[in-house]
Structures are given as C-alpha cells and as structure tokens.
TrEMBL record:
This is DUF4265 domain-containing protein. InterPro entries: PspAB-like.
Length: 198
C-alpha cells in the first residue's frame, strides 16, 4: 500500500491465491454438518474469453487435465455477457477432486498469462428441501461469498448471511456485501446432485 493510500484510508484488496480453493473441502464438511447442504459435485470456472492461439491452448490444456480424471467431466458454455463457464462435474461428488480440477483450469489460464481474465470459481451445494447454494471465489478480491438463489432474480440473503457465519473461521469472506454479485442462471447450479439421489 502506498503512502497516499494510507493517509486517505484506502486499502488494496487482497490478491487472489488459487490455493484458497483448497479450503473448500473442509468447509463443505462444516456446511453439511451445520446446515445440511451437500456438495453436488459440480462447480465452474468463469473467465472472460479472448481471441488468440495462446488462450485456446490454455483452454485445451485445462480440458485435457480434467479429462484425464475418469470421474470428471467438463463442458464449456457462454453466458451471453462475454464470459465463458467451464463447468466441471465429479461423478462421485468428491469435493477434493472437484476442487483439484477447478484449480487445474485456473492454473492453466494463469500459467499462460491470462490471470486477469479470471472472474470467479464456484462450487455448488444442495439441501434436501431443494434449496441451492454456491460458494463463490472472486479472483480479484481473493475472497469468498455465498450465493443462494430462490427464483428468477431472487436470492435468500438470510441464508447467505447464515452461511457466512457458519464458515467465517474457514474461508476468507468478502466483507463488502455489495460485492456479493448474483450469478443468475449459473451453469451447473441446478444439476441433480448425485449425493442426494435416493
């Protein structure tokens, strides 16, 4: 932080650390024990797509890494807002494997110099009563926040605050709730979780 930033009370946001994602598996256990939200085995990496062979190579590298895992699958979709979602699924709903594969996508893009294109990573959860939840990692802030949609352009703010309270000791949460951006119609959010199948 610079001298003038200190005088004016400005602070630099925490920079992303891709290894923060590895805090998600133990946090998932805590969330399941405290609130009955079960990992669905689905998550996504969201990035702004750019043209060029280096970017195409980074995308191919990440897909190849994930495809080498027999329990994992990956699909890519564009959201109409200029962002691409690489949606990763783990057939066993294993959060450790899912996070490892999401990290591989991130690392492939960062290694090719496209870290500024990364927007966020998500890991999805479901409750037996049908509610859905995402834990979202923001790269530019180096923080997490919960997102709990309840319908078209509606979210459960009380649940989001509850989840922050449950996991505040395990994940670095975003303090500024105005930055808890909604991810309406997030690809993969509504996929049926294997863990809840009877």
């Amino acid at each position: 932080m610079g001298f003038f930033d200190a005088i004016l009370g400005r602070s630099k946001p925490k920079r992303a650390n891709l290894d923060d994602l590895f805090a998600l598996p133990p946090a998932a256990l805590t969330l399941q024990a405290a609130a009955d939200f079960v990992p669905t085995g689905v998550g996504a990496v969201v990035f702004r797509q750019v043209e060029g062979s280096a970017f195409d190579s980074a995308e191919r590298e990440s897909v190849a890494l994930i495809s080498s895992d027999p329990a994992a699958s990956v699909r890519q979709t564009n959201d109409g807002f200029g962002y691409t979602w690489q949606v990763v699924s783990d057939a066993d709903a294993n959060v450790v494997n899912l996070v490892t594969n999401l990290h591989a996508v991130n690392a492939a893009l960062v290694n090719q110099g496209f870290d500024t294109m990364l927007l966020c990573s998500t890991v999805y959860f479901a409750h037996p009563d049908g509610r859905r939840l995402a834990l979202v990692y923001q790269y530019k802030r180096g923080t997490f926040y919960p997102f709990a949609p309840t319908g078209p352009k509606q979210r459960d703010n009380a649940l989001e605050i509850q989840v922050r309270g449950i996991l505040s000791g395990e994940l670095p949460f975003e303090d500024d709730m105005s930055r808890w951006s909604p991810l309406w119609d997030a690809p993969g959010m509504d996929e049926n979780p294997r863990a809840l199948e009877s």
